[in-house]
């Protein structure tokens, strides 16, 4: 959940007690908190027209992007094109922050 100051600054707190996905702010860019338990994954999907930044705050995730799989550990940050199949699979309890921005191209 976020709050907005009189100056228009938005602030949100990352929450570990959700359903696994929480949108942090309204509007653009889309900012999402993702929590996955060890062994949990998200089926391949796309975010057409988006550039995505995936910051793994804690845990370990195998992030499949198209035909490539990246093994990420806590603190890793990846930026990629959303016009491909994307599938994160947690190999440990994990928390990530994703920013999905409209593609500049």
> Helix count?
0
Percent strand equals over 45%
Order of helices and strands: EEEEEEEEEE
Using the coordinates above, name the CATH class: Mainly Beta
Supply the helix-strand structural class. mainly beta
What is the residue-mean pLDDT, rounded to a whole number? 88
- Give the strand tally: 10
The total tally of domains equals: 1
Q: Which residues form runs of ≥5 with pLDDT under 50? A: none
Shape: globular
Strand order of the largest sheet: 3-4-10-5-8
- N→C terminal distance: 31 Å
Pfam family, one: Cupin_2
Organism: Haloarcula vallismortis ATCC 29715
Protein name: Cupin type-2 domain-containing protein
What is the fold's blueprint, element by element?
Blueprint: E1 2-4, E2 10-12, E3 21-23, E4 30-36, E5 50-58, E6 60-65, E7 68-73, E8 77-81, E9 86-90, E10 94-102
